[in-house]
Design goal:
Number of helices: 6
Order of helices and strands: EHEHEHEHEHEEHEE
Largest sheet: 7 strands, mixed
Structural class: alpha/beta
Number of strands: 9
Strand order of the largest sheet: 3-2-1-4-5-6-7
Bound molecules: glycinamide ribonucleotide
C-alpha cells in the first residue's frame, strides 16, 4: 500500500474525505502521518481518532523557514511517505522543499486555476464576478498554485453568493476531487509531460 503524508493547517475536511474513502475501500492508500503547522488544528483530532500518527511543526518555533521545512521533511521520511498531500496547508513551500519532492506533492486549491491563486480564492471569485468557479487538484511546482493540473471540478457562482456560500459549494466538490486524484495517482495512472498531466486508461 502506498504511504502518503498529509499536511494540514486547520479544519481538515479534505483530510476527512481522504480517510473516509480509504475506510470504504475506494482509495488504496495509507495515510502514514498527518503534519500540521498549527497545534490546534481540528485535522489533528480527525487523524488521532483513527490512530494516524500526528506531528506539529510550528513555524514560530523554528529559527528559519529551512528549519521548518527540514522538520516536516524528517517527519515525512521517517513515516516512509512516497507522496505529500497538501490538504488545506496554508503555507508556501520553498523551491528546495518542492525539488526534494519533485512531482510528489499534490495540492487542492478552491478555484479553477490559473484563476484566483493564493489566499481567499473563493472571495476573489465572488468579487471578480465570475459565473463559474470550482476546485483544482494539481502537482506542486516552485510557483504558487501553478503546477500541472490533475483534475478540476466546476460549480456555478450564483448572484447572491457570498464567499461563505460559494466556499461551501466548492468544498463539496473538493471532497470528491481529492480522493479521485489520489486514486489515479495510487493506481499509477498519472503521467506528467511538462505542464500536462495525462490520465492513463
Ligand atoms: C479548502 O477549501 C482548501 O481547498 C483550501 O483550504 C480549505 C481547507 O479546508 N486550501 C487553500 O486555499 C490552499 N491555498 P479543510 O481544512 O477543511 O480541508
Amino acid at each position: 500500500m502506498h504511504k502518503v503524508g498529509v499536511l494540514v493547517s486547520g479544519r481538515g475536511s479534505n483530510l476527512q474525505a481522504i480517510l473516509d474513502r480509504i475506510a470504504d475501500g475506494y482509495l488504496p492508500l495509507e495515510v502514514a502521518v498527518v503534519i500540521s503547522d498549527k497545534a490546534n488544528a481540528l485535522a489533528l483530532e480527525r487523524a488521532a481518532k483513527v490512530g494516524i500518527p500526528t506531528v506539529v511543526v510550528a513555524r514560530k518555533e523554528c529559527a528559519s523557514k529551512d528549519e521548518f521545512e527540514a522538520k516536516i521533511n524528517v517527519a515525512l521520511v521517517e513515516a516512509g511517505c512516497e507522496l505529500v498531500v497538501l490538504a488545506g496547508f496554508m503555507r508556501i513551500l520553498s523551491g528546495s522543499f518542492v525539488n526534494q519532492w519533485q512531482q510528489k506533492i499534490i495540492n487542492i486549491h478552491p478555484a479553477l486555476l490559473p484563476s484566483f491563486p493564493g489566499l481567499d480564492a473563493q472571495g476573489q471569485a465572488v468579487n471578480y464576478g465570475v459565473k463559474f468557479s470550482g476546485c483544482t487538484v494539481h502537482f506542486v511546482d516552485e510557483g504558487t498554485d501553478s503546477g500541472p493540473i490533475i483534475l478540476q471540478k466546476v460549480v456555478p457562482v450564483l448572484d447572491d453568493d457570498t464567499e461563505e456560500t460559494l466556499a461551501a459549494r466548492i468544498l463539496e466538490q473538493e471532497h470528491k476531487a481529492m480522493p479521485e486524484a489520489l486514486k489515479l495517482w495510487a493506481e499509477g495512472k498519472l503521467e506528467i509531460f511538462g505542464r500536462h498531466v495525462r490520465v492513463l486508461a
